[in-house]
Structures are given as structure tokens and as C-alpha cells.
Design brief:
The protein is mainly α and about 450 residues long. It has one domain (about 20-200, about 230-450): Up-down Bundle (Growth Hormone, Chain: A). It has helices at about 1-20, 25-35, 40-50, 55-85, 85-105, 110-125, 130-140, 145-175, 175-195, 230, 235-250, 255-265, 270-295, 300-315, 325-350, 360-385, 390-410, 420-425, 450, and strands at about 210, 220, 430-435, 440-445. The strands form 2 sheets. It has a two-stranded antiparallel ribbon. Helix 5 (about 85-105) runs antiparallel to helix 9 (about 175-195).
Amino acid sequence: MSVAKSVAGVRRAARESVSGLPREFWWLWTSTLVNRLGAFVATFMALYLTLDQGYSASYAGLVASLHGLGGVVSSLVAGVMTDRLGRRPTLLIAQSSTAASVALLGFMRDPVSIAAVAFLVGMASNASRPAVQAMMADIVRPEDRVRAFSLNYWAINLGFAISSAGAGFVAQYSYLAGFLGEAAMTLACAVLVFLKLPESRPEATSERTSVRGKAGSDTGTDRTDIGLGDVLRDGRFMSVVTLSFVVALIFQQGFVGLPVAMGAAGFSSVDYGTAVAVNGVLIVVLQIPVTRFIQHRDPRRLLILSSVLAGYGFGLTAFAGSSLAFYTLTVCVWTLAEIINAPTQTGLVVRLSPVHGRGRYQGMYTMSWSVAGLVAPLMSGLIIDRFGAEWLWGACAVLGTVAGLGYWLLMRGLSDEPEEELEKELEKEEVVGAAGAGPVVRDVVPVAESADRLE
């Protein structure tokens, strides 16, 4: 009887986790899954350059940094495109360009050509992120957003878990096949977006809203007139972006520092693929139940906990030696930090983002990860070459401590109310999506009110 009750409880929890979300969300979720099933470049670039092409760890770090630099450039550009052109056109441009550039990268052999095309891949592949996040916030009800972001993150890692293990075996025989496979899957995503996803951008309005000034005075502001300057002047949000960069710098080591360190320790691409695939598997297994547990918890404590856990999870790698099992154990530790951090951080970003500036705000947030993608490879390559991998893992522990302290200082003014309760207090309007998308819920949020909600 107890077993039957447990099974029934699991079924009920699973049903509650996926119910009530709009059809458009599930097409977006499917495109995310398909895209991540083809992920190869980001995971195996370092091994491809060092083991297959014979370049040094420093050169591999340089190429990965150029890949990250492309993402930095495209984050802000794609954010503006998301607000001006729309979510759907931005997705189509980004995914089509990614497919073409990834295929081209597989044929490059000259070091300068590899570096140049890697930069283009970074630009193209990162450009879809602001559009995806903005579209998801557009089409999902405020009270369901944390759950929706968790499900999307779950799809990312389900695809990653499958592709990491499979791509490790592909890489043993042909890296080119991996590049072409990713290009094909990304092109399939572009087709899916074209066929199934309508535009979700809120319609422009000249309505003026009252924005509370520093001295308590009210000033009229066009709520659609949100530029990058407004984002940069949002002090609380930019502090979150800075801390996000520090945490991202730690997590990036799982894909730039860890493969190089394992390769230097004598492990093969299959060994690394197996170890890092545990990251995706654990997220697939634990992301939804952990999100159900943490979604009503204090985000201050969650962000502090996840930062420290990430730092010391990577710090433990210094003691792994020649044990693949120990490397896998460290992956488990920092994966738990990732599971906690992802929905909490994303919920906070949405909470700080005004509706008609979602693309720019998401672009700025995405840029924190892109800058980390630029800095992390240089950091790992230089530290490993000059001092050894142990110093890299020690630096991760320090960064995790710094990020945890930063979140503690920043979040002292955060309201104790759960996010969904704050969002429910906002005025909402029903609008009809373009191209027969059906009714979707969108908030009416003053330009600066999102920042005020955390003060």
C-alpha cells in the first residue's frame, strides 16, 4: 500500500509540475531540447584543440575566450533586437547563423581561421538567449514562471546529458561529425521556431507611467522608452549581473578548466564526457523536485548557499588526483549548486525586468555569462600552464566565498514575500498573441517599478 501511495504521489507531483503551461511554452521547450541535443562545440572545443589538433592549453583558452567575446557582443545586440524586431525574428536569425558557423568551424584548420570562426559561433549561438527568456516571460503567467524556467533548464540539461555522453564517443572517431551534427540540430530548431512559435512581444504603447524618483517625487516616463542606459543605471540589477558573472566564472570551469585538467591527468575524451554527463543527468533527475522544494524558500539564503557550494565543489577537484570517481563526485557537488542557483537567479532577473525592456535586461544578464565565457578560458589556461590545476580549483573556492558574501550584502533589502505573490499584485491584461497565438498574460509594469520592488 505504501509503495502504491508513493507512486501516486510521484505521479501527482509530476502532473502538477507540467500542468497549466501554455502550448507555446512547450514548443519553445521542445526547440530548447532539440538544440541542446546537438550541443558539441561548447563541450568539446578544448579537447578538440588540444588532443585532436595538438594546440596548447593557452591557445585553447584563447579560442574559447574569443568564442565568449562573440557572446558578449551579441548579448546586448540580441537584447535590443528582441525588443525592437521581436522574439521570433531574433530566434530565427540566431539559430540559422549558428548552424552555418558551426558547420564552417568543423572545416577550419589554420589557427587564425579557427579563432575567427569560433568568434562568429559565439556571436550566433548566444544571440538566442535573450529572446528565449523574454518570450518565456511573455507567454507564461507570473505565478508559473519559476516552474517554467526550471522546466526549460531541465530540457537544456536533458539534451546536454544525452549529447555529452554520445558526443564523447563521436569525438573518438570524428570531431567533424560532431560539428556537423550540431549544425543540423540547430537548423532543426530554426525550422521549429518558424513553424510553431508566434511572436509574443507586447504591443508598443505610448502610455505614460509614474516613476518614483529618488526623493519620492513622481516623473512621467514613456514605459516603452527603455534603453541600455536605463539598464546600466539600475543599480540593484547591475549588482545582480556582477554577482552572476562571478558565479558563472565558477561554473564555466566545468567546460573549460575541467577538460584540460583531466586531459593533462591522462583521461580521455570519453572519461571527461562520462564525468561531465553526470551534471546533466543529476539536473534531469533533481531539477524539478528540488525546484518544488525551494520555490517558496528565501532566495537570499538560496543564492548564498548555491554560490558557496559551487566554489567549494570545484575546490574539491584539487584532491581528485587520478580518480575518475572523485572527479565525478565533485561534479555532483557543484551540480547541486547549479540546480539551486538556476531558477532562483532567473526568477530574480525577471522580477527586476520591466515588460517592455525584457530583451535588454535579459541581454545584459546573458552578457554576464558571456563575459564569464570570455574570462574563464583565459583564467583556466594561464593558471593551469603556470601554476597547475590545483591553484585553479583553489581560486574557484575563493570566488564562491566572495559571491556568497556579495549576495548576503545585496539581498538584505529583499522582500520576504515569495516572488509569485509579488507578481500577483501587479496589474495584468489579456492580449491576443500575433498569428493566432491565443491569449497570453502580460504584466503592466512601470519602467522603474521592478527595481523598486526589491528596495
